[in-house]
Each structure stands twice: as C-alpha cells, then as structure tokens.
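Subject: Sanity check before I submit

Could someone independently write out the structure tokens for this chain? I want to compare against mine line by line before I put it in a report. The sequence has 136 residues.
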Amino acid sequence: MRQLAAIALVGVLALVGCAADVPAPSPSASDAGGSADVDVETDPELDAFRAALEGHSPADPHALVAAVEAAGFERSAIERTRELDSLGEPVTFLEIAVRQGESCLLGQVGEDEANALRADALGAGRCLVGEIVTVD
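---
Independent answer below. Compare away.
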C-alpha cells in the first residue's frame, strides 16, 4: 500500500511539474479593452486533439485511441493509461497523450468531460507518468 501511495505521489508531482510549464492563456479581445485586433495564438493540433477527445468515455479506451488516430495523429505516438485501477475498478478519468517531438498533447477524459493541453515531453521519450498501455 505504501508503494502505491508513493507511485501516486510521484505521478501527481510529475503532472504538476508539466502543468507549471504550460503558458498562460493569451488575452482575449475583452481583456485588451475591447480591441478586435488582439493576436490570439492558436494551436490547430491541440484543437484537433481536443475535438477527438470530446464525447468519449474512459470505459472505452479503444474508441478513444481510434478517434485520436482518425484526427490525424500517428498511432505509434499515442500513449494512454489503463481503464481499470489497481483494484480492478473503472477509472474516473483516462489519460491519453500524443508525443510530438519535444512536446506532448495531454488529454484527460471522464464521463462527459474532456480536457487537453500541450506540455513539454518527459525524459525517456514519454508523455505520461507511470504504467501506460502500449498502443500498437
């Protein structure tokens, strides 16, 4: 049990470290005093990744991976976590990632909820911490 708690803590700390590297959102037109010519940086790959996650469930990881692949991402670059926890129970959220050079698209899918962001890749060429499912 102590080992499981240590692994969970390492995962949380690693994810917090990744989140700290995420740039702050660009200002919107309303933040800039209503100026319509504010240059808002877009990330088409992140937008496509986020759209692929929408409407999926952690209970069906194969459909989630297929949706990410159909959105144009290479299957060999996709990582995901398991759909069952260490006790064999369904997870509340499933993490999925796509490695893109030195960065990763990181996604989290729950029932009727999906979030995504871009972060720096971890060492050893991975995006996710802990035990991941190899997508082949």
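---
OP: Matches mine. For the report I'm noting this point. Residues 2-20 form the longest helix (19 residues).
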